[in-house]
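Practice problem 4.
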């Protein structure tokens, strides 16, 4: 399981440039005018994980298959989008289909790149987008409550639960807070997620800075980082221009370029790591002579459900999993060594898969 992240922001903040860099394509037209992205561009990128290459080398795997992450480049939102301004409603629907939001904010000064509001103030830009998403949620909730009224009067338990959750969300939104700040009990979590409210999506702020400030950030990016910390969101500092240049280079050249710029790793790596933390994701591996493969799951996933990511039959017929931690697999130089050293464990249906586990599932077909 990968995850789908919508890249949003005001026009001309660098969304399409970042998308082009991340997907190493020119599918999204990066141009200096609003709404240059008309249809949402979708791109998949491999999630870099150095552990996968190490495991493949030990096992002599012929093929390396990383897990993948989907990015959706969504056209620039403007004030009034919730009422259909700009290209509003169409793109609010695109956001609804994503697991998380990468909110690109302009943290660079450049007189040659126009700003729809005529000034550079990333915190205000972020609030503009958040306000539009909140207004869209409020409108959606009011319509849904009307539609539920008959079922609620009839005593439909599911409708009663939905009404209660929708009213809780609406009360919070009317106080000027996003729906993600509502405290939800465990028994309501599934129904809450099913509501698909825009402001429940986890947000990762992407501070787009000049090339010279990619390593250190600036006052604008620090203001966004402070705001993100207060909201319980995440933030990363990236120069979309640098990422676009790196995406065109060979790996060795890219590494040298990063060193020259004073960067320890590419923005893509930092973006994915921040996204994984934000969504509570982790990786497990399946390793053999044929292939070494990474799989993404949520933290807390039990072994049968982790097996189900590979194929539904694995989950339905799950018997047990042979489990080796990444560190033990490397230290013992592979599966045979780990088994000999007593580092291979047999885990059942209640086992909570850990990040880096190397797993082999046994199941009934």
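Answer key:
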């Amino acid at each position: 399981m990968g995850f789908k992240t919508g890249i949003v922001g005001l026009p001309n903040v660098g969304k399409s440039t970042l998308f082009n860099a991340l997907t190493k394509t020119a599918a999204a037209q990066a141009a200096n005018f609003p709404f240059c992205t008309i249809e949402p561009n979708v791109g998949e990128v491999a999630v870099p994980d150095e552990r996968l290459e190490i495991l493949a080398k030990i096992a002599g795997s012929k093929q390396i298959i990383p897990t993948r992450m989907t990015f959706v480049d969504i056209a620039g939102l403007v004030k009034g989008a919730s009422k259909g301004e700009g290209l509003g409603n169409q793109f609010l629907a695109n956001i609804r289909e994503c697991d998380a939001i990468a909110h690109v904010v302009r943290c660079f000064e450049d007189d040659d790149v126009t700003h729809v509001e005529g000034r550079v103030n990333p915190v205000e830009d972020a609030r503009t987008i958040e306000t539009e998403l909140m207004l869209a949620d409020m409108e959606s909730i009011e319509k849904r409550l009307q539609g539920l009224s008959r079922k609620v009067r009839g005593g439909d338990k599911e409708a009663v639960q939905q009404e209660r959750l929708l009213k809780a969300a609406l009360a919070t939104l009317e106080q000027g807070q996003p729906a993600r700040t509502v405290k939800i009990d465990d028994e309501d979590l599934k129904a809450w997620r099913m509501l698909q409210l825009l402001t429940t999506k986890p947000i990762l702020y992407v501070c787009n800075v000049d090339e010279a400030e990619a390593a250190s950030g600036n006052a604008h990016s620090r203001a966004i980082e402070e705001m993100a910390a207060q909201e319980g969101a995440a933030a990363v500092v990236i120069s979309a221009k640098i990422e676009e240049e790196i995406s065109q280079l060979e790996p060795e050249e890219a590494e040298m370029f990063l060193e020259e710029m004073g960067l320890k790793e590419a923005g893509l790596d930092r973006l994915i790591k921040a996204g994984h933390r934000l969504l509570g994701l982790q990786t497990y591996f399946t390793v053999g002579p044929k292939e070494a493969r990474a799989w993404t799951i949520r933290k807390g996933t039990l072994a049968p459900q982790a097996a189900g990511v590979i194929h539904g039959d694995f989950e339905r017929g799950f018997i047990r999993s042979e489990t080796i931690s990444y560190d033990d697999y490397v230290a013992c130089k592979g599966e045979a060594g780990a088994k000999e050293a007593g580092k291979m464990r047999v885990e059942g249906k209640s086992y909570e898969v850990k990040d880096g586990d190397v797993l082999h599932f046994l199941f009934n077909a």
